[in-house]
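Cross-posting from the chemistry board since nobody answered there.

I work mostly on the small-molecule side, so proteins are not my area. We synthesized pyridoxal-5'-phosphate and want a rough idea of how it might sit in this target. Sequence and SMILES are below. Is it possible to get a predicted 3D structure of the two together?
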Amino acid sequence: MSAYLDNAATSWPKPEAVYLAVDAFMRQVGATPGRGGHWREEEAARIADEARGALAQLLNAPDPAGIAFTMNATQALNMALKGILRPGDHVITSSIEHNAVWRPLKALERRGVAVTAVPCAADGTLDPADVAAAIRPDTRLIAMLHASNVLGTILPIGEIGKIAHDHGILLLVDAAQTAGVYPLDMASMRIDLLAFPGHKGLYGPHGTGGLVVRPGIQLETWVEGGSGTESAPETMPEALPLRLEAGTQNAAGIAGLLAGVRFVLEQGVARIREHELALTALLIAALREAPGVAVLGPAELARRTAVVSVTVEGYIPDQLAAVLDQVFDIATRAGLHCAPQAHRTAGTLETGALRFSPGYFTTADEVREAAEALLSIL
Ligand SMILES: Cc1ncc(COP(=O)(O)O)c(C=O)c1O
């Protein structure tokens, strides 16, 4: 028995094409986009641009050139939050944010940015009317996750996008738990800035991610350095993506990310979501068989991603995860999942929870075996 149920942290395994693309890039291309006037550099730049094009297609992003690559979603979120917010600005967020949004906001609060966290219900659901009610004359940005990595709850980003748009406020979405696994359309959802990890639902390697910026939004830079071209000025170039991509990029990772995004486009997000939701339903039903198990998050399946966190009466989640790992080779994640705010909202800040997160490559048998393993421990 063996199962990897930690796809909400990083997806594994990857499609075969991703392994091959990274290997081929490292052996056959090797160079860095924008650095060096030779065919290898041109090929690296072509691959990076193709990745931007594939991502723009997947996300219905307004302009592929507005996609800057980063190491992960955290960097993209920091880039956006610190590039937009100034002392005296007000920002609205939710009460279930990951530390990748919460900690930068707390750092900005210390520098004079006002932060309002709109309370979600214990299952993570949020009423868009509460977001509208939190708007003030100085509100500059709404920054929110699309889905919770603890509760699986999907927030109504389309409705929030309309509210933001009607009030002339920018919307930044943390798509860490939805990019590649849930339909995203930046145009119809009126998303101005979108942060994504490459290593989760897009099947890229570690060290990949990015920020998508709608044309016309000028971000202050938070990292400055070499941009490959336009080197003479003492400031970063104005044009995207160069403005946000200081230093040598993870070119081999981006080649892998391109293969991952192509895989998602080929399979189709709808099919991926259908498979993951079927596994989620199976998992929830099987876990509920176990005595003392409480499943966190919304009861309605359509409002969830493939993240199933549980508490078990009388057991410490970390101990359960350790036994699942050591005895059954089943990878889960216990604790606070870098999201104490979500646990506070759910009422599990003291205990944490045990999280199962199946992915597109997970089988129904693996999910059943994981639930049986938990039952046998109990
Ligand atoms: C909701 C959410 N936001 C942000 C992040 C941070 O992503 P990364 O590890 O790519 O920085 C995660 C990762 O778990 C997440 O689940």
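Reply from a structural biologist on the board:
Welcome over. Reading the output above for you: Residues 9, 72-74, 98, 100, 145, 149, 174, 176-177, 197, 209, 338 surround pyridoxal-5'-phosphate (CB under 6 Å). The chain has a mean pLDDT of 97. Happy to explain the token format if needed.
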